[in-house]
Amino acid sequence: MNIIEQRAASSLQFARSSDGVEIAFKVAGTGRPLACLHGFSESHEGWEEAGYVEPLMAAGYQVILIDSRGHGQSDKPHQPDAYSGSLRIADLVAVLDRLGHGKALLLGHSMGGTLALAAAAHIPERVEAVIAIGAHPFSEDLEPLRHVLRAGLQDWMAHLERQAGTMSQSTRRRIADNDPAALSACAARNRADFSAQVSASGIPLLAIVGSEDERKSRVLDMTGMPNASVEVAGGLNHCTSFAQAGTILPIILNFLEGMEA
């Protein structure tokens, strides 16, 4: 089966998390499992549109595209307590269990990168390695995000476009289709510091950050971790460091190939 046929054969599946929330996911290709975790207000479709899926499949990975709770086709609870770190980690475990995978490589952008790092900290037995784009394990105040969200999805989309440039119609549709109450609940909690657990996990980590990303200084703080390496992508910001797959994929594949050597 070639790559095009594999993609056509893939369809949306669901896994039930520990609190009953249904998590949507899609599987493409065969090989070592690699779970892709998207950023805030995106969905699994973003990985496909940006061009990550086919090269990862061609490199021998089974790509698992997951819609985070509150996003895409997954359930969208409106209670902030439904978006705790432990429940988001349980969502990942539910998908891996549904597929029969004991461990997986994790690739995440922004919110998804934070989740991948949290998984390394709290369920290291299920994580083979983490690649986090524009994410770190240190504390973070999400009030600036909440401030933009209070103005509505159109203001949030304008905020994204100031970094990403003009977005495609499909990306605009994904953002506009979000449930505002679910997004607000998702962003209701500030992020706690779990860097000590990440450092102690021993899980191989690659942190990628754009040179123009406002999180760069925090990501660079990960260079002090014995299990982490950091790559700075010149000229890219928080959004473009995901969108420019042609620049980011070689960094990812080089790291994965190094693990196999």
Automatic annotation (TrEMBL):
Domain of life per record: Bacteria
Keywords, in A-Z order: Hydrolase
Any one GO molecular-function label of the UniProt entry: hydrolase activity
InterPro entries per UniProt: AB_hydrolase_1 (IPR000073), AB_hydrolase_fold (IPR029058), AB_hydrolase_sf (IPR050266)
Residues covered by the AB hydrolase-1 domain: 33-167
Protein name: Alpha/beta hydrolase
